Amino acid sequence: MIVGKVAGTIFSTINHPFYDGKKLLIVDKIAPPGIPGEGYIIAIDSVGAGIGEYVLVIDEGNSARQVVNSATAPLRSIIVGIIDDIALAESR
Question: What are phi and psi of 17, to 5 degrees?
Fold first, then answer.
């Protein structure tokens, strides 16, 4: 799983029928303690996330397809949670 911050929305007029009616979001990867990680991913939103929110993303095709209950979905990444707070243990 990946912790990320929603940076934007993707709109397309031509896509695979699976994506009809689904929201695609650009998610910047975040590395603790809140510093930007390397790169971004594009993920389907399954929880109603919005721009600026921290989210939990599954970035593995088989697990993502299980969330949408479709073994043949052309899918790799899906947002499965909105993060309310992140608490890190102090390093010793």
Answer: -55, -25
